[in-house]
Design a protein that fits this description.
43% strand, seven-stranded mixed beta sheet, 4 helices, alpha+beta, 138 residues
Length: 138
């Protein structure tokens, strides 16, 4: 297992610990100029903006934690990891909000995550929510 794959797996595992653990997973393992992109909402640029977006998601959706079963991981042995997974998002009452199939492409720079690109369905808008324009950046 490459170091990049180990970090990717650790970050995804930390999401099951709730908001504070999720925040720590990014603070400990991402660059300050992180680009977090998904095809449903576009790019969020900068670590602090990404963390604000995560906090907003947890608060707005009443999320408790996200379990991430991993189906497959591929690493190029250098700076790129691709992970097929499901983001299983749970509410504070313990019920499952959504289980979203995702393929993530993670690019590393100097041992930290510099880009995190997720390809998945736009499940949030299907629930009647929208991403705040404050966090939409391209």
């Amino acid at each position: 297992m490459t170091e990049q794959e180990r970090i990717t797996r650790m970050v995804l595992e930390m999401w099951a610990g709730g908001l504070e653990s999720t925040i720590a997973s990014w603070q400990d393992n991402a660059t300050d100029d992180l680009v977090w992109w998904n095809n449903a909402r576009g790019a969020v640029n900068g670590l602090e903006t990404c963390l604000d977006s995560i906090r907003m998601f947890y608060q707005t959706m009443n999320v408790s934690h996200v379990k991430v079963p991993i189906r497959a991981v591929v690493s190029d042995g250098n700076d790129l990891v691709v992970v097929e997974r499901s983001d299983d998002t749970y509410l504070s009452d313990g019920s499952l909000l959504a289980a979203v199939p995702v393929v993530g492409v993670i690019k590393f720079r100097d041992g930290k995550i510099a880009e995190w690109r997720d390809y998945c369905d736009d499940w949030v808008s299907k629930l009647g929510f929208s991403v705040s324009a404050e966090f939409e950046q391209s």
